[in-house]
Design goal:
Layout: E1 2-4, E2 17-18, E3 23-29, E4 36-40, E5 46-50, E6 54-55, E7 69-71, E8 75-76, E9 87-94, E10 97-101, E11 107-111, E12 115-116
């Protein structure tokens, strides 16, 4: 269990949910949170994905309609809005973020800097 030391409000709604093999259009890497890349799905919805989950071929053919990248694994970018003092269960960690679940069952990613695990 962890206590929320600093409130966090989700940044993007709706969240981007990708499945392994989904086509993606990759964008820039995140300067603030290293290891994350902006990606857009086939519907035009964009959000930050772990760069390691984005397969960008080095030899993208320019004369086809093939997507420039694909998701390597399933990922859901849902963020969790939390208030200072809330208690959450951390179920996964990735690149400075923790996937948390509240006692009432709400779940999503929260920046590690907002959590006190002691």
């Amino acid at each position: 269990m962890a206590r929320v030391a600093k409130a966090w409000t989700k940044s993007y709604d709706p969240a981007l949910r990708v499945r392994a093999g989904d086509p993606l259009t990759p964008g820039q890497l995140d300067d603030e949170h290293p290891g994350w890349r902006w990606c857009t799905d086939a519907t035009g919805l964009g959000d930050w994905l772990p760069d390691a989950l984005v397969d960008i071929p080095s030899d993208i053919p320019t004369d086809t309609d093939a997507p420039p990248a694909r998701a390597i694994d399933d990922f859901d970018t849902t963020e969790l809005t939390v208030a200072e003092g809330d208690t959450v269960e951390i179920t996964a960690r990735r690149l400075g973020w923790s996937f948390c679940r509240t006692p009432d069952g709400a779940a999503g990613w929260v920046p590690d800097e907002c959590l006190a695990t002691s």
